[in-house]
Write a structure and sequence with these properties.
Order of helices and strands: EEEHEEHEHHHEHEHEEHEHEEHEH
CATH class of the largest domain: Alpha Beta
Shape: globular
Number of strands: 14
CATH architecture of the largest domain: 3-Layer(aba) Sandwich
Strand content: 25-35%
Oligomer: single chain
Distance between the termini: 38 Å
Radius of gyration: 22 Å
Number of domains: 2
CATH superfamily of the largest domain: P-loop containing nucleotide triphosphate hydrolases
Largest sheet: 6 strands, mixed
Helix content: 25-40%
Length: about 325
């Protein structure tokens, strides 16, 4: 096997129940060395529970997890030097400065002072935070706290980085900075598993696993998943998106209507046949629109359509 494509994370038939609810239900996937792998899906799909099991902070009821050759189910402590886990609410100390937080996490992993300083300086510079090293963490913005959390998570140079919705609630500029850091880490050979609530971010991953009801429905590259799109996407540009949706949602051949910025995306069985019908319906309803045209599907379009195709809804 090519070393570059060697699996570094192997999850097999993971199951985790909370009372009568199966949060994770027979979930399996592998992650190759040096890739960015996304776990995406609606709330309750099992993303956070899966991350917690991978990190060794929660035991599965059944199934196996091997990370960098270590069985983390039977020996969670042995896996911890290989990974760094950044949960949704990373445990920063708000009464410590940026530098003091980094020093604390470095000391936990016995990182030498010179190594800590070099890595922290490089990561803070990449995220535009070098000038805030003396600022209390409690006085940082939400995006800056997440970037500090990432720096703390990376200070011991892990091989695998587990990120649970790290950019939720973060401003667009900070999200861009965050992903620039992740791309740099990938170039250094770090393997990244990320869950995200933003499906536009899913486009940035090498591969994606679509989770629903605790299991993997599909796992592939974003481009390959788009080829699974049933039907076609028709983009309708309009300032009256809700009125557009109401006018077309019940039409024959329209399987879904998704609100997007600047209008709606309608998933139809045959674009050539349905575009004239969509136009007529909007005109009959006096609904203003600027343009109707076939559009390339987004990951959001694909995931909604695939879930609908499975007989489920978001």
């Amino acid at each position: 096997m090519n070393a570059a494509r060697e699996p570094i994370v192997e999850a097999n038939e993971l199951t985790k129940r909370f009372a009568a609810v199966a949060a994770v239900n027979g979930l399996s996937f592998t992650v190759s060395r040096g890739e960015i792998f996304g776990l995406v899906g609606p709330d309750g799909a099992g993303k956070t529970a899966t991350m917690r099991m991978l990190a060794g902070v929660m035991q599965p009821d059944s199934g196996s997890i091997v990370i960098d050759g270590v069985d983390v189910v039977s020996d969670p402590e042995a896996g911890k030097p290989h990974i760094s886990y950044m949960p949704q609410r990373f445990g920063l100390y708000e009464d410590l400065t940026v530098d003091e937080n980094i020093r604390f996490y470095a000391d936990l992993f016995e990182v030498p002072t010179a190594v800590r300083e070099e890595r922290a300086s490089r990561l803070l510079a990449a995220s535009g935070m070098s000038q805030f090293r003396a600022r209390l963490a409690g006085q940082l913005s939400g995006g800056m706290k997440q970037k500090l959390g990432l720096t703390c998570a990376l200070v011991h140079t892990p091989q695998i980085l587990l990120l649970d919705e790290p950019t939720t609630g973060v401003d667009p500029v900070s999200r861009r900075d965050f992903w620039r850091i992740l791309y740099g880490l990938r170039e250094e050979g770090v393997t990244i598993l990320i869950t995200t609530a933003y499906l536009d971010e899913a486009e940035r991953c090498n591969r994606l696993a679509l989770l629903h009801n605790g299991r993997v429905l599909y796992c592939d590259t974003p481009a390959a998943l788009k080829q699974r799109m049933p039907g076609a996407v028709v983009a309708i540009s309009s300032s009256a998106g809700r009125d557009v949706r109401s006018a077309i949602v019940a039409l024959e051949g329209v399987s879904n209507v998704i609100m997007v910025g600047g209008g709606v995306h309608a998933v139809v069985d045959d674009a050539r046949l349905r575009i004239p019908e969509l136009r007529n319906a909007l005109q009959r309803g006096n609904v203003p629109f600027e343009e109707i045209a076939v559009a390339a599907p987004s990951i959001e379009d694909v995931f909604v359509a695939l879930l609908e195709d499975e007989g489920k809804t978001l």
